[in-house]
Structures are given as structure tokens and as C-alpha cells.
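All the exercises in this workshop are built on plain-text protein records. The record below serves as our worked example for the rest of this section.
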Amino acid sequence: MDRQILAKLNELRRERRAAILATDLSGGRDRLIVEGDKLEGALADAVASTFRSGKSALVAVEGQSLFLNVHLPPPRIVVIGAVHISQVLARMAALADFDVTIIDPRTAFATPERFEGIDLIADWPADALKERPLDSYMALVAVTHDPKIDDEPIAQALGTGCFYVGALGSRKTHAGRLERLKREGLTEEDLARIHAPIGLPIGAASPAEIAVAILAEIIGALRERDVSLPKGPKP
């Protein structure tokens, strides 16, 4: 591999940005494609499919045999709220190969005993996310029902381009949330990205069922995301 390409690939890994190393098997030069790069035709379709699946692939494009070696950041679910749903969701998400972080300033809920083996931060989300900022390969799940805790990370997730933003609450609760976020300057387009009520509509009732609905919705958002746009915070 070309040293410049290797250096760039390592830089992208540090920045948690996705890339594909496209190798021409007929002996042509390697090409590094970053998620969001503008492409056209059959190559664009093949690259988009590879980014979404997360699986490297051998493809034929305009008479060329290309091996698309995909490098994705490990997807992470950041859960705001150390509640019963979070306990189940964290275990399920780990089985699906998601890294999970739980953030909750309420130390009565955010205890190591309740979240054994889980990355747990007992702090206000605004402070925790300064140290560990959100990015486009993170899903934000807000489940505290407390605007003082949930609203700020939701706004950050929308501004940073998290691939999924979901919030627990009834339609009435969500309507109030939207009004508060509008006052903070978020646009209708931003707010339309919030999944609320959270989770796929499967009639979930128990914490475990709600966790299943949330995780399924997150997986769908990851695999169906728009890979044609540049990733990163809004300018």
C-alpha cells in the first residue's frame, strides 16, 4: 500500500471517518474513497452498498475488477439515562457488536452494580460529551424523560450528524420537546430526524421489548443511512 494512502487511512481512523481502499486487481493504482466523496455511475452504487453493509467486496465496474476494502469506525450507541430500558439495551447492543456508553448524572441510577461491564458515566451529558464528543458513527438514545438531561445531547447529536437520534416519550411529550428545541435554533429539517416515539412500532410494552424495538431501529438507520453526504459537524 502506498505510504501516503496508509497515512491518510490512519488519519481517518483517528477521526472516526469511514473509508474504502479500492484496489484495481488488473494492476492499476489503489484509490482511497472517503464516505461522502462525490462519485458517479456504477462505482458510486458499489461504494454506497459497501459502506452501508460494512462488508468488503469484489465488484466489477466498467470492465475493471475492484476489491473494495471497507474501513468503518466501530459504531457506538450513547444512551442518555441509566434506566431499566438502558440495562437491557446495553446487553443486546453488545451482542450486535455495538459499543455502548450510558450517561446519567443521577447517581442513584448510574451505579456500577446496575451496569456491570458497561461504559458508564455518572455526569451531566453536556460535560461528558465535551470530553467524548459525538460523531456520525454514533447513535444517540435519550430515555430519561427529563428535558434538563435529554434536550442538550439531542441537540448536539443533530448538529454533529449522528446516524440515529431517538427519544423516549409520548407524542405529547415529543411535541413539547420539539418546541423547546426550536427555541434553541434547530430547524424543522433537524427535528424531523428525531425518532419519536422511539423504536420500531411493534407494540413493545416491557423494557426488554422496547429495547428490541430501539436496537432494530438503530440497525436499520445504520444500514440505510445516506452515505453520499460529507460527514461531520455542521459548519
Summary: Residues 207-223 form the longest helix (17 residues). The beta strands are 19-24, 31-34, 57-61, 64-71, 76-80, 99-103, 119-121, 138-142, 164-167, 194-195. The radius of gyration is 19 Å.
